[in-house]
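Fold it.
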Amino acid sequence: MSAAVPPLPTLLVIPTGVGCAVGGFAGDGLPAARLLAAASGCLITHPNVMNAATLYWSDRRLHYVEGWSLDRFAAGELALSPVPSQRVGVLLDAGIEAELLLRHRQVIDACRASLGLTIGPVLSSDGPLEVSLSIGPSGSSWGTMGRPDALLRAGEALLAAGATAIAVVARFPEDPGSDALAAYRHGTGVDALAGAEAVISHLLVRHLGVPCAHAPALAPLPPDPGLDPRAAAEELGHTFLPCVLVGLSRAPSLRPEPASGNGLLHGTDLGAVVAPAGALGGEAVLACAERGVPVIAVEGNPCLLEVSGEALGLPVIPAASYAEAAGIVLALREGLDPAALRRPLA
């Protein structure tokens, strides 16, 4: 029997809040992530690719890494330490109303009882986090938080009480009649929450050095018969928390470089990075390209951005879809030159 082919650690980046056709909605990047995990044997990606509200997928080949720490990993500043499980502390915004708060507490109970997750402690911030949303000049989503001090104090308290990862639930503003929300629900808009979610998780991870992810607290919307399938996962329940608890339950721990030990993943281990062809200007992609890691640019995932390999002067391997990107990753894993699979040969 031939020896098993070792994994090819691969990074999957789909930027948040820029209207990506794949991965810009409610966990609709999950099928692509699953395929790339099978092709590579080891896929590192960020929560907005994996989070589908009450839906989720757990696979030990998939590593759930918050965006700021994913950038630091790609830059060689953080190592990832896979663990059997994390103790997930839950930080609840003091601005969440009583009934909606009860729904989130019941999700926590359900994930403990039905999935066996280690969750706790659970605490509320000492004041409302005061999240606000906005759209940037490019049309991408953004947001701010009025009380970052309350967020950080609650995070520190969770860490001191034994949490090794933190799920945040912040009360988000609502505008159920807005044109932007209608466009998103019908598959033509931008996720208006994503930019603010990134601000919250980046701030906590950078301050505490542990895995974090966010779930917005929102009142359920009335049913919409014209709902786009990519947005449907967010309409199935009362909260977006289940996928965050599952993702964090086995998220790798973060170790500052230089780090040593068995089983660690280092940025220098990466064998490929996969990203939308028009969104190659992010820190993780550029850090990989600088080290000569092959950049696979997926042309079949348009977004608001137009930062291509050509615009940046980066050599890329084009892929028409994530299915083709998975084939390229598999070729690299097998030691094949992807150019040898194209015709005409140069």
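The CA atoms of residues 298 and 324 lie 8 Å apart.
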